[in-house]
Design a protein that fits this description.
Blueprint: H1 2-21, E1 33-39, E2 42-48, H2 51-61, E3 66-70
Antiparallel strand pairs: 1-2, 1-3
Helix pairs in contact: 1-2
Protein name: Kazal-like domain-containing protein
Organism: Drosophila suzukii (Spotted-wing drosophila fruit fly)
Domain Kazal-like: 15-75
């Protein structure tokens, strides 16, 4: 019985998390920022239209993204196109 409750709880948390990843960022406006993460020991920088877009991408990729600078990145990493 405990296992069933645990599975149900984990499934519920997974559904709640996926709903956050599908948030609508169209009303957030345009406020370009350069976001940064570390993937496989390599720093990756990507330009986002607003903080909402960066948070949405972070959620979908299950990564931690932080604001590196206001405005567009000097150079977006190749991984940004994927």
């Amino acid at each position: 019985m405990k296992w069933i409750l645990l599975v149900v709880l984990l499934a519920f948390l997974g559904i709640s998390k996926s709903q956050v990843c599908n948030q609508d960022c169209t009303r957030s406006g345009i406020e370009f920022l350069c976001g940064k993460t570390v993937r496989n020991g390599r720093e990756i920088r990507c330009t986002y239209r607003n903080p909402c877009e960066m948070d949405k991408h972070a959620c979908q990729k299950r990564e931690v993204w932080r604001k590196d600078a206001t405005g567009r990145c000097t150079r977006d990493s190749d991984e940004c196109r994927r």
